[in-house]
Amino acid sequence: MCKYEIVYKDIKEEPTYEAIVKKVFDKCFEEENLQNSKLYITVTFTNSENIRKINKQYRNIDKATDVLSFPLYEKQELDKKIEQQEFLHEDVLGDVVISIEKVEEQAKEYGHSFERELSYMLVHGFYHLMGYDHIEKEDKKKMREKEEKILDILKISR
User: Fold this and answer.
1) For residue 68, with 0-12 CB atoms within 10 Å meaning exposed, 13-18 middle and 19 or more buried, which class applies?
2) In whole angstroms, what is the distance from residue 137 CA to residue 45 CA?
3) 153 vs 33, 107, 124, CA distance in Å?
4) pLDDT, tens digit (0-9, with 9 covering 90-100), for 86-122
5) What is the DSSP track for 69-124?
6) 126 pLDDT above the threshold of 90
7) Which of 62, 76, 102, 114 is the most buried (most CB within 10 A)?
8) Is there a contact between 43 and 6 (Cβ–Cβ < 8 Å)?
9) How deeply is 31 buried, as exposed, middle or buried, from its count of CB atoms within 10 A (0-12, 13-18, 19+)?
């Protein structure tokens, strides 16, 4: 199915995170017809301080956030590759960075499980790598529908 690498930066390795990554990304790849692609995602789990530094460096926002995504393709370019199944070599889809501290905080704040919050961060990051955004209302609607569909299929509810 999907290929990914998990990196832990200044936090303890946790096998349950890896199981969630596999379940969520496998379903995302299946839903987007990428099972036969050679696309690869790097997921970095870190703390709020590290994600704050990354956010400041790349977005000039000096604040911790929950998830950052760094896509390697523009949406149109990726859509064309997917349509034509142009995946002859392993290729990086992008990087997703998640603050586990923020995931824990938000799970409590929203009153749902850690698994639900982490799954949402992964799906959200994945769709940013796929070129989706949530700046404009219509784009946000498309992205949210895709995110919720994955979580519904996996029966990961609030």
Assistant:
1) buried
2) 29
3) 15, 20, 15
4) 666 778 899 999 999 999 999 999 999 999 999 999 9
5) EEESS-HHHHHHHHHTT--SS-EEEEEEEEEHHHHHHHHHHHTS-HHHHHHHHHHH
6) yes
7) 102
8) yes
9) middle
Pick the closest to residue 91 from 108, 77, 76 (CA basis): 77
Q: Are 17 and 45 in contact (CB under 8 A)?
A: yes
pLDDT in tens, 52-73: 999 999 999 999 999 999 999 9
Q: Which residue has the tokens 């400041």?
A: 56
Helical (H) or strand (E) element with 41:
strand 39-46
Domain boundaries, the chain: 3-153
CATH 3.40.390.30 fits 3-153, yes or no: yes
Asked whether the predicted pLDDT for residue 124 surpasses 90, the reply is yes
Name residue 33's amino acid: N
Q: Would you state the structure tokens that stand for residue 96, as one six-digit string?
A: 């997703």
pLDDT digits (tens, 9 = 90+) for 1-15: 568 999 999 999 999
